[in-house]
């Protein structure tokens, strides 16, 4: 069992898994404050939940047992899996989100998130390529955890794929070839521009314009190589 201190606040919003756990999905709460989010996630009317919530102060709230299917991802897809809820652990990270005043994630919050993620990843053998944001699995609907989330910090701890930075080479793909490569990497490309925006939000957050350019092509090519080369 975990030695990480947690506050148990059970949510009734869960059911049985249909798939083995192979993914970890990170969200932001996107509500004005932590209590609003927690109240919503435990309300039977909301029909949403998560396995854990991490507050800005670094407290961890446990809501759904990991053996159960929490209702956090909604309609989503990643690497051939459409029932992402059945295959994943969901962590809600308290942040007002883009609607209520999006801001950076405090050190105390990330400091609690990291050991929690490490335990989950070790427990279930989750690979770095399956540690994703909500926007990665639902690009047409979601923006979280957003462009301010410290993916680079997590990647240096092997808790996320690194952003490729070394020896980047533009493969000069057509836009349609880029989309096929993006689908191969794992994204749902049913809405192409949304998929490109989600990819940029994750791997090139300083310029999120939905335009496929040489840098995007080079980053995606590097990610598809057997050993992604990044900043770790």
UniProtKB/TrEMBL annotation:
Annotated ranges, domain N-acetylmuramoyl-L-alanine amidase: 9-146
* UniProt-listed Pfam families: Amidase_2 (PF01510)
One annotated GO molecular function is: N-acetylmuramoyl-L-alanine amidase activity
State which Enzyme Commission number(s) the record gives: 3.5.1.28
Question: Cross-referenced SUPFAM superfamilies, in alphabetical order?
Answer: N-acetylmuramoyl-L-alanine amidase-like, PGBD-like
Q: Which domain of life is it from?
A: Bacteria
Whether Cell wall biogenesis/degradation counts among this entry's keywords is yes
Q: Which UniProt keywords apply?
A: Cell wall biogenesis/degradation, Hydrolase
Q: Which family does it belong to?
A: Belongs to the N-acetylmuramoyl-L-alanine amidase 2 family.
* Protein name per UniProt: N-acetylmuramoyl-L-alanine amidase
């Amino acid at each position: 069992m975990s030695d990480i201190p947690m506050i148990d606040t059970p949510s009734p919003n869960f059911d049985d898994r249909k798939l083995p756990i192979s993914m970890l999905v990170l969200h932001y709460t996107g509500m004005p404050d932590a209590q609003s989010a927690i109240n919503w996630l435990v309300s039977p009317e909301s029909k949403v939940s998560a396995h854990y919530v991490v507050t800005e102060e670094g407290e961890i709230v446990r809501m759904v047992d990991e053996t159960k299917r929490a209702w956090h991802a909604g309609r989503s897809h990643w690497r051939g899996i459409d029932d992402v809820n059945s295959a994943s652990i969901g962590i809600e990270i308290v942040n007002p989100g883009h609607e209520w005043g999006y801001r950076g994630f405090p050190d105390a919050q990330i400091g609690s998130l990291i050991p929690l993620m490490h335990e989950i990843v070790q427990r279930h053998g989750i690979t770095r390529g399956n540690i994703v944001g909500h926007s990665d699995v639902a690009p047409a609907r979601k923006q979280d955890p957003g462009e301010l989330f410290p993916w680079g910090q997590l990647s240096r701890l092997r808790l996320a794929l690194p952003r490729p930075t070394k020896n980047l080479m533009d493969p000069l793909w057509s836009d349609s070839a880029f989309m096929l490569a993006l689908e191969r990497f794992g994204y749902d490309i049913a809405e192409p521009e949304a998929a490109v925006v989600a990819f940029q939000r994750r791997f090139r957050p300083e310029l999120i314009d939905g335009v496929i350019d040489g840098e995007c092509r080079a980053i995606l090519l590097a990610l598809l190589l057997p050993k992604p080369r990044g900043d770790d």
